[in-house]
Amino acid sequence: MKFNKLLENCKIYEAGKPIELVVREYGVKQEDIIKLASNENPYGTSTKVVKKIQELAKNMFMYPDDSMYELKEALGEKFDVNSKNVIIGAGSDQIIEFLIKAKCSENSKILMAKTTFAMYEIYGRQEGCVALKTEDGMHNLEQFEALYKEHNPEMIFLCIPNNPLGECLDKEEVYKFLEKVSSETLIVVDGAYQEYAAYKDPKKRIDPKELITKFPNAVYLGTFSKAYALGGMRVGYGIGDEAIIKTLYKLRPPFNITTLSLAAAIEALKDQEFVNECIKLNFKEMKRYEEYAKKKGFSYIESYTNFITFKFENKYISSDVAQKLLERGIIVRDLKSYSVNAIRITIGREDQNTKVFKVLDEVLDELKK
Ligand SMILES: *Cc1c(COP(=O)(O)O)cnc(C)c1O
Question: Looking at residue 229, which CATH number applies to its domain?
C-alpha cells in the first residue's frame, strides 16, 4: 500500500526503555529496576496531587472542561500573562506539532542545534520540512545566526536548557540573537527544564511574558512532565502572542488532555514547595555524578537540568555501557542515536544514585578488559 510520501523520510521516536521491557527481557525484578532514562521526576508525584486524583477518579466518565479555564487562569497568574496567551497540549510535544503545522509546509526550513530534542525534526519531517542544523552539538548562536542569514528559515528552535546535552544559553545572549531575527520567523523557546536552570543560575531564566512582549514572534513552551512530576499525565503549555495562540487553536483537537490530567496540573501548580524541594535535591545529587565522572576520568557536560551527560570519548562505547547497565536493571539513555558517544542519566534519588555508581563501577571494569 502506498502512504503519504513525506513519511518515507520520517524516523520513529525512540523513547526511553520502559521498566516492563527490562523485566521481560532480562528477568530483573520490577522493584530492582531503576529507570533514569526519560528525565522524569524521581521523587514521584506530589502526595497532594495524588490525593486529588484519587478523589476525582470517579469523574473520568466525563469529558474535561474543554476551555481548560482553571488551568489557563492558573498559568496566566503564574506567568503574569492573559489566559488568551496560553494554550494547553497533551505534553508540550503537542504544542510543537501545532506550531510546525501552523507555520510550515513542504520544503519549509526549520533551524535547530545539531544535538537537540528529536521531536522538532520528527514533526517537521511529517510536514516535509527541511531541518537545518548547526555544526556544533550544543547551541552555538553564531552558527545559528550564520545559518539563519544564509537560509532564512520559517522556524527556529531553541532548547533552553537543551535536551539531551544539558547546556543552557544565557537569557541575554538569546535576546541579542532574537533581535537579529525577522518578525516573520517563528521562534520556539522550549523551556522544558527552565525550572531547573532558573534555580541553578538566574542568568538562564527566561520569563515568558518578557520574551513574548519583546519578541511577539516567539512562543515559550513549558511542561508538567519534568519538575512538576506529571510525565504520565501528558500536560504541557505554550505561551505566545494572542494571534499565534489563536492560530494554534485551529489545530487543536477537542478534549486534547484528559479530565484527570487537567485536575493534576491544576493541583501540581499549587504545590510549589514540592517542586522546589525536588529541584534542590536534584542539584545536590548532581554533584555526586560530577564527582563520579572526575574520579573515573571521563568528562560530563555542565547541566542545568535534571539529567547529566557523560561523554566517553574513546574510553568506552556508550551503547556497551548502556546495554550492560540495562541487563543489571538500570535504564539510561544511550545517545548513539544522536551520533554522540555519551549516555544521558536522569539524576535519581540518593539511594538510586548510590546503586548507579556501584553498578557503573562494575560495568566499566568489565568493559576495560
Ligand atoms: C520532555 C521534553 C518536552 C516535552 O515533554 P512533554 O512530556 O511532551 O511535555 C519538550 N521538550 C524537551 C526538550 C523535553 O525534554
Answer: 3.40.640.10
